[in-house]
Amino acid sequence: MVEPYSDDPEPQSPVRTLSPWPGVDLSSTRPLRLGIIGCGRILPAHLHGLKALADAGAAHIVVTALSARQREDAEMFRNRGEGPHPRPPVTEMAGDPLAAPHLYVSDFQPDPLPAIYTDYRDLLASDDVDAVLCLTSLDTHHSIALEAATAGKHILMEKPLAITVKAARQMVDLASSRGVVLATAENARYGERARAVAWLVDEGYLGQIQLTMGGGIGAGDWSPNRIVAETPWRHEKLRAGGGPVIDLGVHRFNLIRYWLGDIDSVSGLVRTLERERIHRDSAGEIAQRVRTTVEDTAFATLHFGSGTVGQFVVSWAGHGDQFHVPGGWSIWGSNGSYHDGQIHLDDGTRRDAVEVYRHSAPAAERDRHRPHGLSDPIALEQNDFYQAIRRGGSTEVSGEEGLLDLAAAFAVIESSVEGRLVSVTEVEERQVERYQAEINRQLGI
Asked: Does some domain include residue 416?
């Protein structure tokens, strides 16, 4: 049976008990043993999160295994002073997890050093792994998750949860039946500003929410036609599912759903403006070309169950200047608005949202979202995963939540394909999946 951790002396709130599963025997005398599958561009951000947890004494997690198809990719992160020279971050954009500097497991965990596998199945068969953090390309998420759940391993899956809604549903259902935690590695809502806006909306500072607008045109270093994050698979339908609507849309929809509630229906329009993506070498010469088979631009009108209406735009294209709604979203209510970290009320009040939250929200509310003083959203996401396993419950951004974010994102594309308004429920329940059908068929989902 999957036993929750029990090393917290404080009383624990009642939570959903996980289904019995005999594959993992966790106890209060040893840490959660984590295997990491995929040693690519996003791994440094996750290692920094694990280091923050270790530094704060917030979670007893030990990285026991690294898996990469090429052994040297795992060696690059295992032990400082060994392995290939680190790759530089693919971007310098402030706040982007892909800009995180290189880090080694040994920087926060000198002993034991993780084992290295070139086949993730061998990692899943290891008795030294209780849970996995999966950071692979999107086309592999469902197969790895299904095998991990079958092996009794808890799963923290990098967003987007899966390549299609059907694949995500298979993952969620099997994890539930096997009694393992399936969490979506979605950091958007764990930051202090996100918590502040949620609290301000819930407390009625803005009144009844009427309108919202989010997204932007341009992708920083990669617009108008660069290969995004130097990962060509992001531009291939059968490997990425979609373009920025899927890759970035799940971020944006997770956040706005957290603030304003579920999206009921979507009217979307998608286009591919740059048919070819390129990568330039250090001399500025074109070193790689990729034909894109996903959208690079989308516009969507959002209808929320609450009656709120919104507009969302996302694009990896756009020549010249770029435009983005600061912080991802702006919100307008019957008493005022939220924009670029500030609330603007009809009575003339203009205040920083985080400052209002810090001074007015109950201390217990604030402390609950910043355990051990943690501020790194990825560390907080990882701590949530650890606590869900330890206490026998689910994470705030569970597999089910990741599925709903994915359904909202795919609703934009499916609406464009169908030429009509599409409800998120239609997509979630697979009543509308014409765009996704090819992916499911080709990948045997």
From this structure: no
255/245 same-domain check: yes
Q: Indicate whether 113 and 41 sit together in one domain.
A: yes
Residue 359 sits in the same domain as residue 390: no
Residues 37, 145 within the same domain: yes
From the number of C-beta atoms within 10 Å of its C-beta (0-12, 13-18, 19+), residue 366 rates as: middle
pLDDT digits (tens, 9 = 90+) for 363-389: 999 999 999 999 999 999 999 999 999
Categorize the per-residue pLDDT at 272 as very low, low, confident or very high, splitting at 50, 70 and 90.
very high
Same domain, 279 and 289: yes
Handedness of CA 344, 308, 167, 156 (dihedral sign): positive
Q: 24 or 80: whose pLDDT is higher?
A: 80
Same domain assignment for residues 154 and 202: no
Indicate the range of 5-9, 216-220, 338-342 predicted with least confidence. Answer: 5-9
Mean pLDDT (the chain, rounded) = 93
CATH number at residue 166: 3.40.50.720
Write out the two tokens for 281.
């070498």
Which range of residues forms the domain containing residue 253? Answer: 191-370
Whether residue 62 is found in the same domain as residue 208: no
Whether 364 and 380 share a structural domain: no
In a domain, 287, yes or no: yes
Residue 200 counted as domain residue: yes
Apex 104 CA angle, 100 and 107, nearest 5: 105
Q: What is the pLDDT of residue 282?
A: 87
- 7-55 tens-digit pLDDT: 333 333 333 333 333 334 445 558 999 999 999 999 999 999 999 999 9
In the chain, how many domains are there? Answer: 2
